[in-house]
Amino acid sequence: MERVLIQDVSQYVGQRVKIMGWVNVRRDQGKLIFLDFRDATAIVQGVILPGSDAMEMGKLLREEFVVAVEGNINERPERNRKEGVVNGSVELEILGIEILNTADVLPFPIDNTEDVNELARLKYRYLDLRSDRMQKNIRKRHEVLRFVRKFFDQERFIEVETPYLTKSTPEGSRDYIVPSRLDKGKFYALPQSPQQYKQLLMTAGMERYFQIARCFRDEDTRGDRQPEFTQIDVEMSFATQEEIMQINEELMIKMVAEVYPEKRIQQVPFPRLSYKEAMEKYGNDKPDIREDKNDPNLLAFCWVVDFPFFEKTDADEWTFTHNPFSAPVPGDIEKLINKQDVENIVAAQYDMALNGYEIGGGGIRNHKPETLKAVFEIMGYSKERIEANFHHMLQAFSLGTPPHGGIAFGFDRLMMILQNEPNIREVIPFAKTGEGRDPMMESPSEVDEKQLGELGIKLK
Ligand code: ASP
Questions:
Q1: Which CATH architecture has domain 6-101?
Q2: Which of 75, 148, 171, 366 has the smallest number of Cβ neighbours within 10 A?
Q3: Atom of ligand 1 nearest to the CA of 194
């Protein structure tokens, strides 16, 4: 007999069906056994009636056993119906049970895992993910990504994968590095973002790129940070700042309408604040402009623009506030080239904030070698250092790179807000602890002497 998905069983009233899934709840009343079954689509209540051939097997079942069950789909008597619940009006009269796998007693119940110790949840993540809330979070992730891919495809963007094994460059965070076996003493870096590759794809004539990209930053983990996280990464050639902001605003508006129709966007078009206004009015550059902070379905998007390009480091040197690859606003290009009035150079940089979180940021880039070089010179980089780190960018910019700009969204953070979760680990399938560990795989872990030897590495 072919398997029927549990979400569809109510279409089979009066017929015999076969379902497959997990024992969700078991209530043994002696003469009767009630068993709820769960698959990825829904739950159905089953019952083994007195005298049934299935009774003996039914007595063996425990919660989370994996089973194939055959039975008749019956209408429930009026008084037992549950309105508005999937399968609330039907019941499965169990006739035959096959145990596909057993389950030991679970380390924690999976119905309310938000109350379970987080270390245990991460150690048994595959169980945690069985819970209704986590199932919803992960499935919504998929729905949003599916929308994003469809949207960009319709707008003539193509998804291009960029390398994970790349080169250590200053993008603001600490790199994860990977030793090279063939080139002993040399290291790859995992990308902090695909920034340079996506710009080089503009040089390569792709014109409109996006990628659901994994990024790696060796920072101390916080509620909205992880050692690895996902960006919706975007870059466009021949587009103005206005056009890039427009299309990404449209992405968010349409995504919410399609995937979260119950949510309301506070203001469209998204309000825009200058960095200065945001700091003066809200004291930060990712303002929470919600009219009602208790409303879980209110989304208050806004843009923050006109960021200072440079700020002073503790060592009294200039560094970039966002991205060394940003361009200044058109009126400030002269200042950049002449390295004058540096503190007042405004970057063509725009951040998107949502309910008090920065969910995205991007900019128009320098696409000429002299402006990119000027950025590094202002930061005090020597000619040699600029050559060693950025030769490939400067060369590409002297071989016909179009004007371009883009943006990247922190996808985990976006999902955290959309799903009303308190931290990004709730929307990341296999998240790490606050210390960057994976208690399920027990990583990071030691490696063999032999592996280290092959890499020419000796531990201190
Ligand atoms: N690469 C930048 C980041 O990761 C985003 C961008 O400017 O596109 O913050």
A1: Beta Barrel (2.40)
A2: 75
A3: 1
